[in-house]
């Protein structure tokens, strides 16, 4: 990783890659999305220099709101240093020359693929979600004309039937990610494939939430402090995943954990999916039960002497 | 075209066309973030940087900054009488944004209102449809004096509990019109209030209560 503030390459790309007319079109869609929380605004999604499915919707939203004085954080499944996050962060470093960070509290814009940071977001932050399938009713009704009418008429019975069938088959609601929510008591919305663990964070979040789906050409938004309810039944209330162990490295409880395979003899551990949160806790001296394990140490990166790729930013 | 505008420009400023943003990319981005923050937090006052704009009257720098940030050839614009009378304003908007200026309110994506006290109704603008509520108009009221005190209380998305808000000059029936507009959610227009240096917005999602003091 080289210097943060690179001079803009004159004559190559516009600031943040997109041309100004495209940004204006996306900006207008964002405003309408904010005015109608949870409604999917169609927009003229552009081809981006990355394939669909790699966050082209989120990238276009970020490119349209990003300014020279912003500080950008990009996460992929909670982690700052996995492929998608590294690629998108590099894209904006190169085309916009903005400052980037791994620290949740330092970022003014956070683009995410499928997680919400564990730390509470503030009013002055914006979180941008990359969305693959924005239509929560799509797998129940394949026709766009029909799902549009269902949203118009607030006809969401089919979604409740789906959740009911979950209960009939499995004894509980088996949907664990992309768990449908009701926004501001009006629109049923797909919160992108975040684990349902993150659904309570969407409710009355202090930060503005923007959702971009590039292939499906939809933008939607949830303004700060908007009521967002996860769909459920009175006798089968919404519940988040529970973990019976704390994070192996930092000992955090009540966070979302990822399973990591350590060797080929069945060794495994559960660690925070939010890598920045985990690192911050370890720096503050919190240690989990696996922290001393040599196999775990190599994964923990910065805490031992090897792996000098310490993301000190 | 320009010759025509010059000859018919009976306005006080026979000066050459006023400049647009000094830095079109960054100025538009700053303008948009301010407008977005205003829309995401209904009733909050947001200072809008105008990038040194000196547009022809009755356009103000704040209104011109909103126009240059959001308008282009995709957004038909409707002007009320004081704006529509000014060739200089129309020339400025046409040159810098390329937006077509329409005569029927219902065809407009944006409406610029120079004299909000005489705005007869919000219902004449495109309200969007139930299937495409995003197609409704955004109405920009100019020359407003904004404050976070007053009998109007806002709540709903973007507002933690409740916020007081007042703006003027507006017509007597204005708040009744806004209430009726917002009652048809998800249809309805969205409002932007432009002050002398700050803006506020009122999307259709906001609940409005007027309490007599």
UniProtKB/TrEMBL annotation, chain A:
Region annotation (Disordered) maps to: 286-313
First-level EC class: lyase
Q: Which GO terms describe its molecular function?
A: 4 iron, 4 sulfur cluster binding; alpha-D-ribose 1-methylphosphonate 5-phosphate C-P-lyase activity; metal ion binding
Query: What keywords are assigned to this protein?
Result: 4Fe-4S, Iron, Iron-sulfur, Lyase, Metal-binding, S-adenosyl-L-methionine
> According to the UniProt entry, where is the signal peptide?
none
- Catalytic reactions on record: alpha-D-ribose 1-methylphosphonate 5-phosphate + AH2 + S-adenosyl-L-methionine = alpha-D-ribose 1,2-cyclic phosphate 5-phosphate + methane + 5'-deoxyadenosine + L-methionine + A + H(+)
Q: Which GO terms describe its biological process?
A: organic phosphonate catabolic process
Highest taxon, organism lineage: Bacteria
In the UniProt record, does the keyword Coiled coil occur?
no
InterPro entries in the cross-refs: PhnJ
- EC number of this enzyme: 4.7.1.1
Q: What does this protein do?
A: Catalyzes the breakage of the C-P bond in alpha-D-ribose 1-methylphosphonate 5-phosphate (PRPn) forming alpha-D-ribose.
Q: Which family does it belong to?
A: Belongs to the PhnJ family.
**Name the UniProt record assigns to this protein:** Alpha-D-ribose 1-methylphosphonate 5-phosphate C-P lyase
Protein source organism: Roseibium aggregatum
TrEMBL record, chain B:
Q: Name one Pfam family in it.
A: PhnH
TM regions (residue ranges): none
Q: Name one GO molecular function term.
A: lyase activity
**What does UniProt give as the signal peptide span?**
none
Q: Which GO terms describe its biological process?
A: organic phosphonate metabolic process
- Would you say which domain of life the source belongs to? Bacteria
- Spell out the coiled coil positions from the record: none
UniProt KW keywords: Lyase
Identify the NCBIfam families for this entry.
Answer: PhnH_redo (TIGR03292)
Q: This chain belongs to which protein, by name?
A: Phosphonate C-P lyase system protein PhnH
Query: Which gene does this sequence derive from?
Result: phnH
């Amino acid at each position: 990783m080289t210097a943060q503030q690179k001079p803009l390459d004159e004559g190559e790309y516009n600031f943040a890659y997109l041309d100004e007319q495209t940004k204006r079109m996306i900006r207008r869609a964002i405003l309408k999305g904010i005015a109608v929380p949870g409604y999917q605004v169609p927009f003229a999604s552009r081809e981006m220099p990355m394939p669909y499915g790699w966050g082209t919707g989120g990238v276009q939203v970020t490119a349209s709101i990003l300014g020279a004085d912003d500080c950008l954080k990009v996460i992929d499944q909670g982690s700052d240093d996995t492929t998608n996050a590294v690629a998108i962060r590099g894209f904006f470093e190169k085309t916009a020359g903005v400052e980037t960070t791994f620290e949740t509290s330092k970022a003014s814009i956070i683009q995410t693929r499928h997680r919400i940071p564990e730390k509470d977001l503030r009013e002055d932050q914006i979180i941008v979600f990359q969305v693959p399938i924005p239509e929560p009713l799509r797998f129940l009704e394949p026709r766009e004309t029909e799902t549009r009418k269902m949203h118009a008429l607030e006809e969401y019975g089919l979604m409740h039937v789906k959740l009911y069938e979950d209960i009939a088959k499995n004894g509980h609601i088996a949907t664990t990610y992309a768990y449908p929510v009701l926004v501001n008591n009006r629109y049923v919305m797909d919160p992108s494939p975040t684990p349902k663990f993150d659904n309570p964070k969407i409710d009355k979040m202090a930060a503005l939430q923007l959702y971009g789906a590039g292939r499906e050409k939809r933008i939607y938004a949830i303004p700060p402090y908007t009521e967002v309810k996860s769909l459920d039944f009175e006798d089968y209330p919404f519940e988040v995943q529970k973990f019976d162990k704390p994070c192996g490295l930092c000992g955090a409880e009540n966070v979302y954990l990822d399973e990591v395979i350590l060797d080929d003899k069945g060794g495994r551990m559960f660690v925070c999916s939010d890598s920045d949160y985990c690192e911050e806790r370890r720096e503050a001296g919190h240690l989990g039960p696996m922290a001393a394990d040599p196999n775990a140490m190599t994964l923990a990166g910065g805490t031992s002497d090897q792996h000098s790729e310490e993301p000190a930013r | 075209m320009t010759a025509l505008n010059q000859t018919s420009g009976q306005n006080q400023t026979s000066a050459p066309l006023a400049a647009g943003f000094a830095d079109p990319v960054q100025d538009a981005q700053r303008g948009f973030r301010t407008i977005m923050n205003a829309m995401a937090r209904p009733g909050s006052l947001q200072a809008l940087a105008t990038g040194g704009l000196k547009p022809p009257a009755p356009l103000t720098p704040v209104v011109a900054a909103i126009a240059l940030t959001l308008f282009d050839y995709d957004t038909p614009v409707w002007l009320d009488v004081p704006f529509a009378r000014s060739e200089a304003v129309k020339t400025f908007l046409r040159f810098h944004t390329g937006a077509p200026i329409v005569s029927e309110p219902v065809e407009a994506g944006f409406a610029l209102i120079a004299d909000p006290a005489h705005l007869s109704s919000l219902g004449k603008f495109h309200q969007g449809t139930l299937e495409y509520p995003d197609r409704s108009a955004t109405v920009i009221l100019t020359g407003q004096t904004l404050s976070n005190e007053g009998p109007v209380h806002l709540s709903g998305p973007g507002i933690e509990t409740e916020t007081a808000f007042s703006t003027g000059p507006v017509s007597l029936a204005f708040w009744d019109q806004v209430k009726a507009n917002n009652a048809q959610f998800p249809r309805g227009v969205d409002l932007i209030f432009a002050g002398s240096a700050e803006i506020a917005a009122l999307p259709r999602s906001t609940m409005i209560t007027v309490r007599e003091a």
